[in-house]
Structure formats: C-alpha cells, structure tokens
Amino acid sequence: MHRSNADRSDQAKAAGTSDFLQLDIAQAPPGGRADWLARQLRHAVADGRLPVGSRLPPTRALAAELGVSRGVVTEAYRRLTEDGHAEGHRRNGTTVVAAPLPPPARPASAPAPPPAPTPADLFTHPPDQGVFDALRAAPARVDLTPGTPDLAAFPRAAWLRAERELLRDLPATGLGYGDPRGTPALRAAVADWLARNRGLRVTPDEVLITSGTAQTLALLGQVLTAAGVTSVAVEDPGSLGARQQLAAAGLDVPPIPVDPAGARVDALRATGAGAVLLTPAHQFPTGVVLDGARRRELLRWATEHDGLIIEDDYDSEHRYDRPPVAALRSLLADRVAYCGSASKLLAPALRIGWLVPPPEHRDALIAAKRLADLGNAALPQLVLARLMESGELERQLRLARARHRRRRDAMIDALRRHLPHTTLHGPAAGLHLMTTFDDPALDDTALAAAALARGVKLHPLSWHRRLPHPPGLILGYAATPPDAIREGVAALAAAVSET
User: Fold this and answer.
1) Distances from the Cα of 327 to the Cα of 201, 269, 476, angstroms
2) End-to-end CA separation in angstroms for the chain
C-alpha cells in the first residue's frame, strides 16, 4: 500500500528522525541535543553535503520533524552562525556561507594519475570498446569525426515550447511507470513518421522504442542468441561500433565485402550466418546504395534460409543529390527488423531510437527491453512525439538538409583543392564522406594520428574494415562550419605530405 508524504512525515516525527541529512535525534546524548545537532550540521558543511548557498530548514519545521523543542534547533543554528558556518536572514532563513574542507593532500607515495592519451596512443593498437570515448575526449581544433548532425542547430525553442505545453497538460498518472515498449504517443508518431518519410506501413503496436541503435543491436543480439542464432554477418567496411555491439552479445560477426552495388549476397550465403546487419539506403562508410538486383537476391536469401535482415536506416533522411530509396522493410516485413533513431535527426543526447521487428521476435524483444530498463524515460519521448506531430521535426530536417549540403560542398571543394589525388565516396547523402588513397602502403591510422597531432579529429578507414581494402579516412562534415572544414582539410593535407 502506498503511503502519502504526510504519512511518512508523521512517522518520521514519531521516530525522531528527519529526511534532512537523515538526522536521528535518538543518537544525541541526553541533555546535549543542541551540541549534537550543531556538530552534525558542521560535518555536513565540511563534507559538502551542505554546499555554500544552501538553505537550512526553518527551525520550527526541523524541530517538529525531530520531535524536539524549537529552542534546540535555534541554539544549534546560533552556534553555526557564531563560528562562521552559516548566516541568518530574517525572512530568508539561515544560509550556509562556509565552504567545505579541501580534500586531504595526496600522500607522497600515491601514484600519479595516468597522463592523457597522446594522438599516437589512440591509433597504435586495434580499437577497443572505449576507443570512441577516448577520441571524443581528445582535444582538437577541428572535429571531423563522422556520425553527428549539427548540434548547434538543435531546436531548443521548439523543444522548450513543446515541453512546457506537455507539462501543463500532462496528468499525474503520466509521471508513473509506463509501457516498456514506449509511450503510445511516440509509437504512434514514429509509425506516422515512417509512413510519410520512408513509405513504411506499420501500426504503433509494431514499434518498440529503445535508447538508440546501440541498445537496439544489444537487444537483438540477446534475443537472436537465445533463439539459437550464432552469427550475424556484417558489411565490410562497416560500422565498428555496430560490430562491437553484436560481438558483445556473444555472436560471431563474419565480414561480407561491399562493392559499388552494395553488400555481396554471395558472400553472405557463404558465411552460413542466420542474420545480417545492413545499411542499405546509405552504406556506412562507403555511401553506396544497395541496388535492385542485390535487393532481390537478398530477399531470396532471407526467404529460402529463414534469414533475418537487420536494416539500420541510420541517416536515410539526409540526402542531397538523389531520390529516396525504399526501405527493405517495405518489401519483406516478416524477415526484416527495421531500426532508426533520433541521433542523426536531432541529437545523440536524446538517446531515443525505434525498432520495428518481425512478428517472430517481437514478444521476446519487448521482454528483453522490460528487463533492461523498464522502458525509456517518458518525458523526452512525449516531447519528441509533439515535435513529430506538429511538423516541427520535418521543418528542422528541411533546414538541416540545406545546411548540411553547404558543409558537404565545402568539404568536397577543400578535398579537391588540397588532396586532389584521393577518391571521394558517398557524397550524395548522409553526414560524412569517405576518401581513399591509391597508395596501398599508406597507413591510415598513422595518418589519423598525424592529423590529430595537428588538431584535426577523424576516423581511419581501417577501424571499420577487416578485409583487404585501400587505405582511407572517414570525414564528418555536418557538425562543422565551412571555414573550420576548410581549415581541417588543409591541416589534413599537411599531415598527408609528411606521412
């Protein structure tokens, strides 16, 4: 049975305890309650639990909670004021004015903290699960790492307006535990979004809201492993992060090569894998589109072998020089798990993604999501649903396309000017370009290290491949203004000349 706040307060009074600092008057010695209370408050100031500027409870309220006379609390506050820990203000109560004690000095024998990683440290060894965190933390003048939209253009005003409207109208029940599949409002908005923008006809009940594509792949890996699937084939070159997520679930991740027509289905058949992860609308990192013949061959593989296609539609909305490509989910719904997210539409910080699984795995995925976290935080879901329903998200996407196109053009121009002998891949869509070099002896990780030493962050292509492939780089442009892009490419060219 749930207890009200008043019930808990009454119980605290009866026990002589307080929610404030978890004070328990039973610990005070007889006749020394004011001394004990003053001492507890000094300790709380010293260890930072009561920082400068925090307000102490009214004397009458704290006395009632502890079950003591108001004089005990007043005397304790007076002592804190006299020794400089607090300051009394008539109408504004008593406020802490003393800073906490500094932490004790480090013993001379304590080991020094490890130095920050150097550019060479990041690229000397094969990339592990922490490599992207380390690269994000590395200081740089120009960030050309792929996968991030223009975060400075996040629609803050529209988000705040939608959030205020939501909180004004939201009933108290909306603040409780919700559906682990996601809020009904966002599932309906995503279903409508997919119908308008990707030509997918799905119902809200078919949509599962996740914390982004990383969690989507983790859930799929867990469910597929339990279903007896032992391997999921992945594109090569292909996303290192996606491969790491599937491998963490205990799955083998055999590579299948990507050529100008997309992933090779003959190589997929040869792996014997029960599932495959693809980015068919805009392959990462090459930018190629899975062509019609390959699509038909892929669908035959899925039908004949009961194979599962995991369709990562990670940035299909960002296209500039070509028409949209139909999602595989629209062609064979029973064998395709479709996933997308708000990370490339708005910002990765939202941690909101969606999965439309085939019926065979839907219940198991919902159960896995429930056990993982009981469902995403509801308030951001509801705000995003309002942006989708109002048309604000589509307006934001139109603005982003125009801005990203200008930045892409600036990168292409800079690469043609400073690195004319490289080959560019995938400029028609997405948030990044891939560039490859003719010299097979060039070490792209050494080049990435040299670029970082000059203040430019990027990904070496070798992070994202295991099969033989020309050396190259993956350069994001969406989050970087044109002038900074030009500066970064010029610094990259200088690094190339020295490598």
Assistant:
1) 11, 22, 24
2) 70
